[in-house]
Amino acid sequence: MMKNPPHPGELLREDVINELGLSVKEVAEHLKISRVSLSRVLNQHAAISLDLALRLEMAGISTARAWLAMQLNYDLAQARKHRQPTIERLGLVNNI
């Protein structure tokens, strides 16, 4: 697992939209979402939602599962940067 994975919006902007030579407006219209909503994701101010992940999959841009995994990896890395309380392990017989 990467310690500092990129936000999936950055990957979407750089590796998909810019590579295809498309505008944010064109992609937003194609995905049937607002330009503002897409811009928030591309500028790392919002997460890739389940809905957006499905729309990207329908547009042939990887799978919804891949986009959500990227978002989860990013979110976990961000959470690990914050101080966490000390938590004692539970004495469970079977690990979950």
Automatic annotation (TrEMBL):
A GO MF label: DNA binding
Keyword vocabulary terms for this entry: DNA-binding
All residue ranges annotated as the HTH cro/C1-type domain in the record: 18-57
Chain ranges passing through the membrane: none
InterPro entries linked: Cro/C1-type_HTH, Lambda_DNA-bd_dom_sf, Toxin_antidote_HigA
PANTHER family, alphabetized: ANTITOXIN HIGA-1
Name of protein: Addiction module antidote protein, HigA family
Classification of source organism: Bacteria, Pseudomonadati, Pseudomonadota, Gammaproteobacteria, Enterobacterales
Gene designation: higA
